[in-house]
Amino acid sequence: MIMDAHVEQFPPYRKHDAHAHDDHGHEHHDPGFWAKYVFSTDHKVIGIQYGITALSFLFFGLMLMLLMRWQIAHPYKPVPFFGHILELLFQHPGIPNPAAGGVISSDLYNSFGAMHGTIMVFLGIVPLAFAAFGNYVVPLMIGAPDMVFPRVNMASYQAYFLGGLVMFVSFFIPGGAAQAGWTSYSPLATSIPTHGQLFWIIGMILLISSSLLGAVNFIATIIQLRAPGMTWMRLPWFVWTQFITAFLLLLAFPPLEAAAVMQLMDNVAHTSFFLPTGLAVGGHLANVSGGGSPLLWQHLFWFLGHPEVYVLILPAMGIVCEIIANNTRKPIWGYKALVYSVLAIGFLSMIVWAHHMYMTGMGTIISTFFQLTTMIISIPSVIILTCLFLSLWGGSIRTNTPMLFALAFLPMFGIGGLTGLPLGFNVSDIHLHDTYYVIAHFHYVVAPGTIFGLFAGVYYWYPKMTGRKMNEFWGRIHFWCSLIFMNLVFMPMFSQGMAGMLRRMADGGANYSAAVNSRAGGDVIGGLSPFIMSLHTPILWAAVCLGIAQIPFIINFFWSISHGEKVGDNPWESTTLEWQTPTPPPHGNFDHSPHVYRGPYEYSVPGHSTDFTPQNEPEVSTPASPKIPTTAH
Amino acid sequence: MEIPYTVEARPDTGLYNAKVGIWLFLASEVMLFGGLFSAYVLLRVGAEPGTWPHGWQNIVLGTINTIVLALSAITTLMAWVACKVREFGKFKFFHACTLLLALTFLCIKFVEYSEHLNHYEIKLTDGRIADGDMVSNDPAQDHVVIKGRFDKTEMDLYDLRAQKEISETEITIPRSQIESMDNYGPWHNNYLALYYTLTGLHAMHILGGSIVIGYLWGPGRKLWKKDPERFTNRVEVSGLFWHFVDLVWIFLFPVLYLT
User: Fold this and answer.
1) Least CB–CB distance from A269: residue in B17, B25, B187
2) Cβ–Cβ of B1/A593 closer than 8 Å?
3) Exposure winner among A464, A488, B48, B251, fewest CB in 10 A?
4) Nearest neighbour of A216 by CB, restricted to B1, B21, B39
């Protein structure tokens, strides 16, 4: 009865003019290829555009990583096969080729390192986790016809595409792409005499604008377009994670935009926002007015940079949660705890940023404060992981490919999270800062963590997008190979880092350890032992195998569009609303606004005929409520 | 299915879609300008004692611009009220005023920028510093002429508030005596860098807001006949943005002109 009262407070949707009705109502009206697939305002098409672009960038970032791993294992040796391609690509008349003879120069290595990070974070994972899955799934999950601002949505994708293009093109300008790391610390970023950094800044401003438009759209959609009866505590947890992620993007990205504007001014208008007095570049006093603060850049960068970590991980957690609930066939354990934890993370992630800056000399009091907040934020993260683990207890678990990826996410993210604690304490961070330990830590969070979550999502929602499942056998091959080789790549880096191997050395530390060992006479602390150095080779081959392991996925992805097993509207027998639409959902998604009567995870409800109860199925105890047609078969 | 609540408010939130959107957008704008203001605080606090400029701005022009923007806030509000009571003629009048005021603001800003860019600090080989507006800087001639004064050290240039009477004369300086010459652009020092960046970004917001209001005033008014309610909402949303931009200036004026 309470449900009905809630439903009644919503008036029927207003049909305000005939013109808009034409756009949505008549499916036989064919808008043509360009309007339908390229300049589309349909959230599902935009989601797929985001997804395919982002997956391409992820693969591109992987390729950069393979080239860097070759360089680390075999410093300044010609890259087999790809070396000649690089040499051809980077040829510019009048300047030395950065890949002469197929050898990666230190400058080129720096470019690859900076762009690997930038591409993976800003062009790969955020667009895939937030924009692609969010766009496709969130409006369907909340029972909305589309995103609230469809044209803003299209503009968001276009800005993202343009930003990606600027980043991509920057590889091929004379001097190459940005070389100052994905963090682009000033004054280094301003001092390198090539134009790569300029392209980076302009690309970033476009990407930030894109995610700003996306974030506004997501939040407004979730606030305004929830179907009647879809109260906040009936939202699937995935929607909650997207909601908080959107807030983080909305509020944390603008300070980086401000910083990017200032670095642009430093580059173009020769201001000194981040350039200190007495700055020397290449042994000469730089011609700058001075008085700037390099620390200011770091504060503004990490004010984005740390919430960004949660932007990367929260959507993946949301996906994993949906898949675990669906494949254990029981309600998720501690739904409310999950919701409050994600809210707490959203708030706390704004006040932990300076734990990236313990070594800058910003002062022990500030360090202590940020150490404290960092330890506090691990509590809601652990609550989330615990809830997901406990959800497995007593379930009759189906082990399909999405579930395998979702299950692997839990321990992998666990390793990534726990190894972060020594970095969060400022005393142990002194030893570990800027070493391969850090690389191993955040890659465990992002690579076998987030990316596994995203793979799970691709396998899980693929039938909704295409009406066919991806091949199960090749999915398992993809899963097991990815799992094994991910660990073989990143696990040895923990020991390399603890032994003192620093990040960003273009020769993998060969010169560094030779210098230290010859001065101190062998295997001392600070120098890298032959064993530590010898780990480079197995990591290289594990990385190559990891690359090869993605081929089954790529083939499976395209092959299954036309050859996959045909399935119905709800192949996983799920409760949430995105499965209660036709497949693939038409423009406008639902013929009538669905009414929601229950929470998102009502699996195995005692007395119910099936082991899942969709959210829009009316209460059986209230026969008076009318049966609302929800799908158009 | 249509997108609901494009015009009428959703009962439980009490807002139509675009209003939620603009408030979220403004939240991010607060963070954008917040980032820049925190940069201002950090750089000003970190500057060498006595080197932060005071009294470098034309306070008269700044005050006029403050009044101009305050008036435009009133006309923007009145334009929305006119839409609400369905008097389209008044809407056109008030937003015409808004656009003229915005144009006035940008013109005054342009004058201020050109004054700064024409102001030079010239270090002479004998250690003295000449500071003033450029009168003649013809590359064909072997001297430059400025209207200004000589100072012993740069420190004399920083706090102009204490120097009530600055006697300015035309000074002719042979190019052979010039060690370095630098106009008051963003490269001159961090104060000017912040001044140009903050007011420049703000001016771009004024320009963007003017384009939106100009669109509603011009080609966008067709919607009035079809759906006055929706048109009124657009006026309201653009007005909210305009008020935010005004509010930013209310912070910029004291921070850059008065302190």
Assistant:
1) B187
2) yes
3) B48
4) B21
The residue in chain B having the minimum alpha-carbon distance to the alpha carbon of residue A632 is: B1
- Residue A95, phi then psi, degrees to nearest 5: -125, 150
> Cβ B34–A254 below 8 Å, yes or no?
yes
Q: Provide CB contacts within 8 A for A399, sequence distance 6+.
A: A327, A407
Instruction: Residue B10: list chain A partners with CB under 8 A.
Output: 224
Q: How far apart are CA A177 and CA A179, in angstroms?
A: 6
Alpha-carbon span A380 to A347, nearest angstrom: 11
Residue tagged 């609540």 (tokens): B5
Which of A250, A270, A273, A596 should we substitute to test contact with B (largest number of B Cβ atoms within 10 Å)? A273
Judge whether A119 and A60 are in contact, CB under 8 Å. yes
Q: What is the pLDDT of residues B155-204, one digit of tens each?
A: 888 988 877 677 889 999 999 999 999 999 999 999 999 999 999 999 99
Mean pLDDT of each 10-residue bin along chain A, 633 residues long: 40 39 48 84 95 97 96 95 93 92 94 96 96 97 96 96 97 94 94 93 96 97 96 97 97 96 95 93 87 94 94 97 96 96 96 94 92 96 96 94 97 96 94 95 96 97 96 97 97 94 90 74 66 95 97 97 95 95 91 91 92 89 49 46
pLDDT tens by residue, B121-159: 999 999 899 999 999 998 899 999 999 999 888 888 898
Cis peptide before A584 (omega within 30 of 0): yes
Interface probe for B, chosen from A17, A247, A271 (most Cβ of B below 10 Å), is: A271
